[in-house]
Amino acid sequence: MAPFPAARPRRLRRTPAMRALVRETRLSADDLIWPLFVRDGEGVLEEVPSMPGVVRRSVDRIVEAVEGARALGIRAVCLFPYTDAALKTDGCEEAWNPDNLSNRATRAIKAACPDVLVMTDVALDPYNARGHDGIVRGGEVVNDESVEALVRQALAQAEAGADVLGPSDMMDGRVAAIRGALEAEGYQHVAIMSYAAKFASGFYGPFRDAVGAAGALTGDKKTYQIDPMNGDEAMRMISRDISEGADMVMVKPGMPYLDLCRRAKAEFNIPVFAYQVSGEYAMIRAAAQHGWIDGEKVMMEALGAFKRAGCDGVLTYFAPEAAGLLARGWE
Ligand code: PBG
């Protein structure tokens, strides 16, 4: 840069048009994946108290919501079931029931909005009473038996029409096992977005309320999710998942891990997504509700930061709100 006064960087910040001309990063509705909570029943919209503005929806209401989001330009959604406690078993059999909530919602969305991508969650926490992502035997989350169950779950989701499978369980070897099964069973076209860099985070608290797993969780998830202090380990997990057949990878949570979004993009040159998780959402919402921050401004700033850090997109509960602002010309 030239020395002052030849360089006056404020020249490029003078007007909205000038700022738009030199803006480096842009957020668009195409960058957004909207996570949705599905519950049973009909015509049901149920508030999630720890996530103001987020609701659990019955399948018919999910379809309406996706149609509305589609009109705002959102073309990817991600499903999380709120499973009836009576359907939870130690063996997690409901996970591969072709007619479970998640699979019913997938079929309904694909029938109504075939051009919207449906992503599903491959993990067992909605299906066992202990709230763990794998099968628990003798107080331990067992790896290989869990992987077998996850493969069954993944195949049922592919059969229902899911476009993208999101293994969020963090068991070892699951991406290879799922990829192999998809290839063998005629689902070569189904993509895998691996939750590769998923941390044992406190930021998931409100989500566990939303899927009804909060009270259920016995212990913690530290034997399978990554220690929040470990960035190199996260890069190894991304490398492993890519070698096992992941098409895209995720860093989760998002904002406290932006350094790893940047590293993942630089080191692997593959589509990288961040999950702006429930706790991140709840913090912004709660502060905005108190009038302590400008909620819209902070939402757009946080989402833009993921793009600036190198992410190709973001899973965010703010998706429809952000897409609405973008459609109205937010900058
Ligand atoms: C579990 C799962 C979690 C989230 C997505 N999938 C929670 C967990 O690992 O306990 C968290 C999402 C969020 O907090 O928004 N398979």
Written account of the structure:
This protein is an alpha/beta fold and 331 residues long. It has one domain (26-327): Aldolase class I (TIM Barrel, Alpha-Beta Barrel), CATH 3.20.20.70. It contains eleven helices and twelve strands. The chain has helices at 16-22, 59-71, 101-112, 143-160, 174-184, 205-210, 231-243, 258-268, 278-289, 295-308, 319-327, and strands at 32-38, 45-47, 55-57, 76-81, 117-122, 135-137, 140-142, 164-167, 191-198, 248-252, 272-276, 313-316. The strands form two sheets. The protein has an eight-stranded parallel barrel with strand order 1-4-5-8-9-10-11-12, surrounded by nine helices. Helix 2 (59-71) packs across helix 3 (101-112), helix 4 packs across helix 5 and helix 7 crosses helix 8. The mean pLDDT is 97. Bound molecules: ligand PBG. Ligand PBG binds next to helix 6.
